[in-house]
Amino acid sequence: MKELQLALAEIKRELLLSPLQIRKIAVEFSQAIKLGLAAKPSPLKMLPSFLTPPGGGEAGSYLALDLGGTNARAALMDLQGKGRWDQSLRVSVPLKDPVSGFDFRSAEASASELFDFLAGLVDKVVTSAPAKTYHLGFTFSFPSNQTCLARAKLIRWTKEFQTSGVVGEDVGGLLEAALERRGLRIRVKAIINDTVGSLLTSAYQDQHTSVGSILGTGHNSCYTELHAPIGKEPMIINLEAGNFNLLPFTPYDQVLDEASEDRGHQRLEKMVSGKYIGEVARLIFHQLIVNQLLFKGRGAAVFTQPYSLESEQLSLLLADASQDLAQTQGWLAGLGISASHRAERAALQEIAAAVALRSARLVAATYLGVQAHTARLQPQTIAVDGSLYERMPGYADHLAAALGEGQAGVGQPLRLRLVKDGSLIGAAIAAAIGSAYETS
Predict the structure, then answer these.
(1) Is the separation of the CB atoms in 11 and 286 below 8 Å?
(2) In which domain, by residue range, is 90 found?
(3) Which of 153, 174, 192 lies at the terminal end of a domain, its last residue?
(4) CA–CA distance, 69 with 140 (Å, rounded to integer)
(5) CA–CA separation, 254 and 259 (whole Å)
(6) 169 and 271 share one domain
(7) Helix (H) / strand (E) containing 391
(8) Which pLDDT does position 409 carry in this prediction?
(9) What CATH code is carried by the domain that includes residue 87?
(10) What is the pTM of this model?
(11) Which pLDDT tens digit goes with each residue over 101-136?
């Protein structure tokens, strides 16, 4: 087991980020923001949202639609002002039909099929509500070029979406056409992504919110730019932070990227998000097995098949507080590894912890980069949504600790705030703001 311990120490060394490295990444992230705002080459796309943060007094009934994961969701939201809201109606349907197997995310699905499906969800919400003309906010969580609040052209699909006929098209127009085909009296007032939704949802209650972030299957962040290149008011800017690439890569990161469909893109996301950290850990486990340092070189399918290990399994490893790591032993037995030493089980847990810790510290560095760029004097709140932040054992604490280390007592403290369901609530708030723009 001595060789295993030596290999483990080297792996943890490769994954560790010191406070100095965190501050260095923060500086480079801040510089990337400045370059992007100046329309110079930058790994950050700096996409304008055409939205100012809410004042908290927005009120009225608005429709919200969310597309960005395995399910599509629609809801009727009642904004009540003073940071309060009520959700009267809601539907959620998987994008892959469990009966027919048809997947609206696949290349076999057309743009009209996908958006007719989305319009059908909205119809289910509207038919249960009083007949009237509704304003709708659409959370579309993919890189898009926006020309105004309600118009956005898809730059490229991410998260395994491949629906044909959507890239380069205005998704607001596609949705409106589908709604019209159903005879619905609905106007698309705003298109946002999920990070903007998180920021809007938190800012509706907390005026100090300046950053919105997703830490779940994917990763991205947005922030409020006080000196936006377009417009005279402060504007929320979608960073597309997952594409940041000025980072300390390990050999495992390089292998993962080389095997990915979007090689060279989304490098930060591939190091921090729920979709990828299980794969980073799997690559490490597999290498140790190949080197005869775990389970006498006899692994299981979960360690050899790409993306077969998910963040949920890492959470299981991290949650095992039993003296003999019995839960991990049971998990391994279920995979067909009936004999394992405690030292081997502990190695799995330590690697999972190191991968998760690195994720939290990398994300913290980007938040510090935003803080350095904005140089705000008042306290700032970072709104975070996503299963990784909410559910992975120790993750939220690691993120907060890394922010403290990176700040080292300089500047106003950054407060993390968990935001749940920001994609729907934020879409309704965006629709309210968009409606106010029209009447002002």
Answers:
(1) no
(2) 59-192
(3) 192
(4) 10
(5) 9
(6) no
(7) helix 387-391
(8) 62
(9) 3.30.420.40
(10) 0.92
(11) 899 999 999 999 999 999 999 999 987 655 678 899
